[in-house]
Structure formats: C-alpha cells, structure tokens
Amino acid sequence: MFGMSLPDPDQLQGTLVDFALLELIRQHRLSFQPLWTVDSWVKLMIWLALNCGLSTDKESFEHFAQALGERITTRMRRTFFERELGDLELHVLADPADSQVLLLSQAPQDPSVLAPECLTRALKRVDLLELVSADRRSGKLSMVLLRFPGNVLNPDVYRLNRSVSQRWF
User: Fold this and answer.
1) Which spans in 29-156 are helix H?
2) Sheet holding 100-105, edge to edge
3) Among 18, 34, 38, 114, which residue carries the largest CB count within 10 Å?
4) Strand, coil or helix: what is 131?
5) Considering 80, 100, 115, which residue would you say is the last residue of a domain?
6) What's the predicted TM-score (pTM) here?
7) Where in the sequence is the domain holding 156, given as residue range(s)?
8) Are 92 and 75 members of one domain?
9) Which residues have C-beta within 8 Å of that of residue 15, sequence separation ≥ 6?
C-alpha cells in the first residue's frame, strides 16, 4: 500500500461492526416469521435488543431504537428485506413499508433475466409470489418497467404491485 494511509482505528472498528451487524441480520432473517412483514422486522429488533442486555419494557425498546439512530436502522431494514439471487442475476427488495416489490437485474445486457417466468421463479424462491398481485384473468404479474438514464442506475428495475397493505411502525 504505497502512497495510501491506513484507516483510522475508530473508522476500522466501525466498518467491522457494521459488517458484522449486517451479516448477523442476513444469517438470521429467515428465523423471524412470517417473512416480509412488519412483525418479522419487530421480532428481529426485539431479539437484538434482548441480546444487548435490555429488558422487555417499552422504555428499553424505545431507548434501543433511539440509540441505533435512523442511518443504522435504515441500513439494517434494507438488509433485512432484500435478497440477492446470484444464479438468477436478480436483486429483490420488498420492504413492507413500500407498496411495491423491486426486482433489479444484475445483468442488464441479458434480457432473459427480466422474462416473466424468471421473475416469477425469483418471487417464488423468496416466498413473495403469493404476496404479489396478479391479473386474475390472465394470471400474469402486473409490471411497470423503469429505466434510469446513464450512470445513475444501470440495471432495469421492475416494480411489481403488492397486495400487502401493512404500514411501517
């Protein structure tokens, strides 16, 4: 590492803790049922708070949420409600706070990644197919294709209407 300075110890510790926290969420998110719901998110937050030594009263949980702050909580929530499907070259985002599921192609040069059967397979694999609204007559998923210009966001993005009406707490 010629010409480059080493990171500050505090910065390095923060990066390590951030990595460990997000990896912990990835490893345990399937444990909190039902998946893709506010209830599963709340169960994760309670589990984390209890493992930090807090009690089960409302004041402790509120203190925990405030201590995490908006930035960390947002990153945790995104990690909790996303899935990467490398073999299908898709990235799935399905936060119950949103009314839509996002499917992002990781291979924008390959149109087959965005074929309806591939998208259906992806939704089925992550247990979202039942939650996504379908046209009852044709059985097809309702999709709107959004393209982002230039370097802003390269992959195509599909927004799928969801039938989940739960609100974020």
Assistant:
1) 38-51, 58-80, 116-125
2) 82-85, 90-93, 100-105, 157-161, 143-146
3) 114
4) helix
5) 80
6) 0.76
7) 83-161
8) no
9) 7
